[in-house]
Design goal:
The protein has 273 residues and is α+β, with helices and mostly antiparallel strands. The chain is 18% helix and 38% strand. It is built from five helices and 14 strands. The longest helix is centred in the last third of the chain and has 16 residues, at 176-191. The protein is globular.
């Protein structure tokens, strides 16, 4: 029998409950970003279907990153803002810039399912690979159950298991989702070609989906009585092969997207404001 301990989540249930209003699509995006922050090279979103009626009853997000170290799990899961990403802005081994910093993304998965389990595989201080599980349930949002780590063989990583799916989770099977995810992560994959994403068995191949792209250098000048400076950045315009609503995605130089603004484009022209 696996030993289990329960910790109190340091935020109120109604605050966590608010995260459940996040759309399933955005919740999946957050889990993918978490895997990227954990230095994963390969990330899969897997749908498990019932053999009888082909109904999705479980979703897993699987990565080969460094996992969540057991020594950090209580800090990570006990509170919002307990994430180590607030203290160090880049990952320890690959020096990737972090996308998140407050630890909210993991709770947004409750917008997909009523039971979330993180199965972490990490390397302990003595080099032994170990695994443990953390579970958060909609039945008790103010507590998390954590198992004692066990020695294992294999590779590090994390599998997020989403069970007891909500009705809204069915939207994740729409064919348009993979196009939207590809558009979201294309800037990061362009900057980091060693990253590979799969969604329901299909690879997110941004190269095949690009009709053409143009890069426009832009210089902004800021002048005042006390200060004057110029900032240079690049606007990359991507025209997709498929029908995709126009968006302006704000990214840094590493391809990390921070915000998305829907655009209204008519006659093939960008808006003036």
């Amino acid at each position: 029998m696996i030993d289990i301990k329960t910790i109190e989540v340091g935020i109120k249930a109604d605050a966590i409950d608010g995260f459940k209003s996040t759309s399933p699509e955005k919740a999946i995006e957050e889990l993918i970003w978490n895997a990227i922050d954990a230095e994963a090279h390969n990330i899969q979103v897997v749908f498990h279907r019932s053999n009888e009626i082909d109904l999705v009853d479980r979703i897993e997000v699987i990565d080969d990153g460094h996992g969540i170290h057991y020594g950090n799990c209580e800090e990570v899961f006990a509170s919002i803002g307990g994430s180590e990403k607030r203290l160090r802005r880049r990952s320890p081994n690959l020096d990737r810039p972090y996308h998140g910093q407050y630890g909210k993304g993991r709770y947004k998965a409750l917008g997909i399912g009523k039971s979330i389990t993180w199965k972490s595989r990490f390397q302990s201080a003595n080099g032994q690979l170990q695994s443990y599980e953390v579970e958060i349930s909609n039945d008790n949002l103010e507590a998390a159950s954590i198992s004692v780590p066990q020695d294992i063989s294999g590779t590090s990583g994390c599998t997020v298991v989403i069970d007891k799916l909500t009705d809204e989770a069915r939207t994740l099977q729409r064919p348009s989702i993979i196009n939207k995810l590809t558009a979201t992560f294309a800037p990061y994959m362009i900057a980091h070609p060693d990253l590979h994403l799969k969604y329901d068995g299909e690879r997110l191949n941004y190269e095949e989906m690009i009709n053409k792209q143009v890069e426009l250098p832009v210089t902004l000048s800021l002048n005042s009585e006390l200060h004057s400076e110029e900032d240079e950045f690049v606007v990359r315009i991507i025209v997709w092969n498929h029908k995709q609503s126009a968006s302006l995605i704000w990214c840094d130089q590493n391809g990390i997207s921070y915000d998305e603004q829907k655009l209204s484009i008519r006659g093939g022209m960008l808006p003036k404001s």
